[in-house]
Design a protein that fits this description.
Elements lengths: L10 H6 L17 H12 L2 H10 L5 H17 L5 H38 L6 H17 L20
Helix pairs in contact: 2-4
Length: 165
């Protein structure tokens, strides 16, 4: 009789091609279907013996979290043998930095656009077409300095002026 409710062997024992005994440390956490693939990664990275020893040292109520962590790290190590899940964390941190920069850019552009009608109505006689273009260049500088490209430009350019040489 196997440790997983009378069915076949647990995913770990199925992968290891051994009989799943009552009290198998892996049975509650690696079912016979998806557990086999997850345990294969855990076995490849940590080894069955080391994984078993780690789980035995952890209190039973914390083992589910430990197995989830082992599986996550093992799958990450299979995908990226050098960095593992740390590589994924760095990627996510870089995405956060990029999104923060994009948010700051959009907020600056929005603020500029909200102030632009006020500036145009109160100082219409002071602004020439070339100064309007220089305002739009400020936004272009923001894009180039943040190393981002936006699919559209929010400030209209003066298309009647000749290109500078």
């Amino acid at each position: 009789m196997s440790a997983n409710n009378g069915g076949g062997p647990c995913g770990a024992c199925k992968f290891l091609r051994r009989k799943c005994v009552k009290g198998c440390i892996f049975a509650p956490y690696f079912d016979s279907d998806q557990g086999t693939a997850h345990f294969a990664a855990v076995h490849k990275v940590f080894g069955a013996s080391n994984a078993s020893k780690m789980l035995q040292r952890i209190p039973a109520h914390k083992r589910v979290d430990a197995v989830i962590t082992l599986c996550y790290e093992a799958l990450a190590r299979v995908r990226d043998p050098v960095h593992g899940c740390v590589g994924h964390i760095f990627t996510l941190q870089q995405q956060v930095v990029n999104l923060q920069a994009e948010l700051a850019y959009i907020q600056a552009r929005l603020s500029m656009l909200q102030c632009l009608p006020l500036m145009l109505s109160s100082q219409a006689q002071c602004l020439s077409p070339t100064s309007l273009h220089s305002l739009s260049e400020i936004g272009s500088d923001l894009v180039s300095s943040s190393n981002m490209s936006m699919p559209f430009d929010l400030i209209p350019h003066n298309h009647n002026r000749l290109p500078s040489s």
